[in-house]
# Entry
Amino acid sequence: MWNVRLRGPRGKQMVLTIDPSARFKTFADLAANDLGLKATDQLTFRRGFPPRVIDVDGSALVKDVVVNNDTIVVDTSSTAVAAGRGVSVPVTTKTKRVDAKKKVAGKAPTGGAQTLKRPVSGTKKTPSRWKVAGTGHQLGTSLDDESSATVETERDDERDDERQRTYRRIRAINLTSKEDVETSLVNAVSGQSNDRKAKFFRAATKNAVEHQYELTLATARLNAALGHNFEIEELATSRRADGSAATLRVRFKETARKWKKETVDLLQKDELQAIVKYVLLSGGETGREMLKPFNMAQVSTRVFWSIARLYDGDVAVGLADLVPDEDWSFLDIRTRLMSAKAMEAKANEEYYTSWKQSRAKENGSTSQQPERKQGTKRSRPGLADEQKSEVGKIDPDVDKEVKREAAESKCAQTISALSEKEATPGTLRSAAAQAALSRYDRSSQTSAAVAAFLNEEGPTEECSRKQVVAEDGKEMVSEDEVEEAITVYCDSCRKARILSPGEAGKVKLDNDPWSCSYLAKIGRRGGCDEVDDEVAQLTGASIATWLQKVAVTTRQELADTSVDSAMHSLVNPSDPSAQVVREKLEKLIDEARLDEINDWMAELVGGTDLVQRLETQKLGTPADLVATPSDLVLEAASNTHTINMSIDIVSSWQTRAQKLVDEHPWLADWRTL
# Structure
């Protein structure tokens, strides 16, 4: 069975199911019956685009005339009109046929004078007059005219409102499922349908395409302004009262081979300053977003090109010059909109943090003053008024004590937090909020990272194994224990693990491959998630933790990283403490590079003694070996080594050194002074 969509003369639509082997006359009868057409009318069928009349006999098969899922337009007309238009298929009816001669038959003349004029019917047709739909105006006084005009205006408004409401009801569409939406969208964009759904989707698609084009054009404006690929001409066709030009013609590079012209209003510097200040004062966060160069290039081309004209295309510099007292650091910050769930989680986290700090303050006050009588336990809602004043008054000693207790047993805290007594919905939401805060709150991350870099730390756990206490009470590093330490590298995470000889015998170093999971036998259950021991020994545990969060997990990765990329990942560049963090980070990177150079040189030449002797000859880095001729390197190595060396050994040193320089470009800048 085939489905054929029918469109009647009065907008009625329906789907007719018919056998493709049936006669077209049967199809016409079913269409007339389903559309409820009158028996006195004939049907004219049209199909295709533009619709063309189907000129076939009634005995033709349906499958030879239409196709499955085709759309047929059905028109009705009288017998005479249908004959004038073309071939139509009559509908089978049982009405009595009237002879056409009897319809217009006049009385034959019986005698007397006869004329050649045709007989005139008894009823005279009146000519159709042009009708104008609307309301008239009655002549009278001006007061009557005003009152009548007011009444008519109100009536017109009521009609417009009623028409608009009716239009909204009529144009409503019903999309029942996802498949219905997909089918309607495909039919709309391919031109296979012209119903209300198709019109809606075509309009929505057109708006989306226009919006995307505006975004693309805004990007082209910004790129042209920053790349100085634009030309501005003041038009003389329109002038201000002072004689200056009022419009600009901008020609900028839209694509690689296309230039676009725009005509915008010319704004002077004082006008631009007033506009920017007004947006900052009354626009709120939305207005500040619109002042970003990309958004400005989209929403206000006249302001964008006027600033670009004055400041050579750099809109950000122009904004800073127009309003120098404003902090414009937000221009380079990407906007992150928090969802309702994330905002709720942040509020819960703030409440939980302040409640926890108030409890810590209570415990600290009790330990310092044991004679003070403890009060009754207060409920959490009762602390809401006191949290605002207690958050900023935490005792430093109490804060250190809380941090020390948290560092003693992380595993115990995790088990305690997940216990049945304390794992309330509030604490679970607070734990989930930490993930949201780490993604959305850049300022909190910056504060924590700055605190980690500025706070001086003691040695890590690995370093503490190598410390002894001197007579004056100061901690000193024991050289014997440092020499006996063993460094092993995990085959899974490539991190370094510094072990004492006693610990090395318990972690099965002979196994191949070896992973950090064997460290559980000596009490280190963190596995590969722990920070690298060499990085922790160099930077401290807290800084090593922050470096691991930005994918700097080993000392070699720390040496290969750049200061700019690490700063961008760790802190906000506009933070006041960013410069201090940058200086310390540069120092740590230089120390990591120096340690890596020492290890690589020991691997290249085969011993630390020979490395130290080569350093005295200004050949202590791979870049020195690459830049120095082979015979001079051989001469320096022979003078400092008891064994006779060949030129082939020196060539192998230089080959491996060149490979290291190619893999790590920063090595080219490290030379022995």
Summary: The mean pLDDT is 73. The radius of gyration is 44 Å.
